[in-house]
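Our preliminary data section would be incomplete without showing what the modeling component actually yields. Below, a chain of 185 amino acids is followed by its predicted structure, encoded as tokens that our downstream tools consume directly.
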Amino acid sequence: MAKLVYSAITSLDGYVADVDGNFDWAAPDEEVHAFVNDLERPVGTYLYGRRMYEVMVAWETMTLAGQPPVVQDYAAIWRAADKIVYSRTLATVSSARTRIEREFEPEAIREMKAAAGRDISVGGPDLAAQALQAGLVDECHLFLTPVVVGGGNQFLPDDVRLNLELLDERRFGSGVVHLHYRTTT
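Predicted structure:
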């Protein structure tokens, strides 16, 4: 059975974007990017909300000539995976291997996890909140960035209680800290 994994780069105070929607402070350096790439290799399907998809779809058409190897590697990983975008308003998609679903159905995700040969990633805190509330998330990868933004879009929702088991941790030269948790019952 595949795992449903939620990964995000956050500020020290737990935000994926500040109050103005900016997340430029979250851009990974080469060391962190290479580590993220290795975490993403087992992913066969990305689940996105509309806003996260609109950010990530840049990987579909990005010009890779002259880009660092870690960027080229991530683009290949992203392009090779299937994508499902959950949106009531998006009319069409702008990437290959992508389909739109109008509603997030927890039972459909359970079935997908049971049938999938590769892991599934949920991206974006709003969609992840729905998956967390439904008890679908198996693991969380948190990349704490040494910045405090004071508010914005939270990594985790307020109304969910999770018991977590720390599986791994890693410090990077940039001050970023990776925490890998498994959800427990």
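The mean pLDDT is 96. The beta strands are 4-11, 15-18, 43-49, 82-86, 98-101, 119-123, 139-145, 152-154, 163-171, 177-184. Preliminary results of this kind motivate Aim 1 of the renewal.
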